[in-house]
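Thread title: Can someone regenerate the structure for this chain?

I was given the following input by a collaborator and told the matching structure tokens would be attached. They weren't. Posting the sequence so someone can regenerate them.
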Amino acid sequence: MKQQTDYLECEKPWVYWLLIMAAGWFGGYTFIQRGGVFCNAQTANIVLFGIALGQRNWQHAAFLLIPITAYFAGAFFSELLGKTVKRFRFLRWDTMLIGIEVLVVFVLGLLPARVPDQICQIGLNFICSMQFNTFRQVEGIPAATTFVTNHIREVGSNLAKYLRHRDEKSGRKVRVHGLLIVFFALGAVLSAICCGFMHYRAIWGSGVILLIVFFRLAHADRSYERAQLDQVPHGH
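Best answer:
Regenerated them for you:
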């Protein structure tokens, strides 16, 4: 008999749709309002770091280590705290993380325009890394919630498999990854619109999205999933 897999609320598709929408919002916000950069990943910073070293621009290379270190710290502390908070049996780490993100986003939205853009960028580097490390699989399918490069690859690869073999598993992956791309783009669109009239406060829009996730996950933790607080999400 095939055993049915029970997924936690934090692994459901709606959670990943909203989280990646918030990430798209972050990217649009930092590009438009905070320095013309994307804060969701560190690939570009690693390339720029290598270029700075090759050109012997030591000062710029040292500066680039700041966002890279912030991203590293986010992954480190999310892994460390995730194992620690389980002992309190009040809320899952996944839920607490979203609450932390809401607080960070609220504070960043309070920063005046004169504050260096790098402060906002580093703050978002940190929480994006924590989110990326914490939310790993949407109902058994590995998925990122902060960038879409791999989702684009997965759509292309699995679409070819589906057209060749009519494999339902591949078809499901196309739908899952395709929707994540759509929601990421939607977040960027909404961010651009809000930046047009809210300017530096536009990041609060992503906070509204995260608040929805937080309250729904908190409700699950304190009600119908209370007995599952020790259950580890798939992919960890």
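The mean pLDDT is 93.
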